[in-house]
Design a protein that fits this description.
- The protein has 138 residues and is an all-alpha fold.
- The protein has a single domain (2-137), classed as Four Helix Bundle (Hemerythrin (Met), subunit A) (Up-down Bundle).
- Helices cover 75% and strands 3% of the residues.
- The protein has five helices and two strands; from the N terminus they run H-E-E-H-H-H-H.
- The protein has helices spanning 2-30, 42-66, 78-89, 95-113, 120-137; strands at residues 34-35, 38-39.
- Strands 1-2 form a two-stranded antiparallel sheet.
- A hairpin with a 2-residue loop joins strand 1 and strand 2 (38-39).
- The two termini are 21 Å apart.
- 30% of the residues are buried.
Length: 138
Amino acid sequence: MLLLQKIICAIVETMKESLRYLNNAKEILKTVPVEGSTYTDIKPVREAMGTAYLAVLEAINESLAQKGLAKKELPKSVEGYRKALQKYVAVRNGRVLREFEKLYDMLHIAGYYRGLLYDREVVKEALKSAKSFIDKMG
């Protein structure tokens, strides 16, 4: 029983880091001026979307570490994350890889890289999707 408690505590503790990143993204957004439903300063929104994407990557790292991968074996590129998800996670749940692709496009490409997300509701939904993904990884 003690071993099971230690394992559960370790899982909860490791997932805290990805949630910390996601909460940081939400905190960044609280500082952004809004007119109607539009963020008027795109730079901090881009920063928040980048931070949310890092939360997703951190959740994958945490999940892979729980499966026994050493820190040096963790992916270092988006292609590496795709391969790791296919090998260690998508074997049981093929939707996880599709969700990762969606989050990559939404958070990293549209939100951070291109700065195309500035509607408050769209950003809110993107963060909800990231949280859902993190929960699945845990």
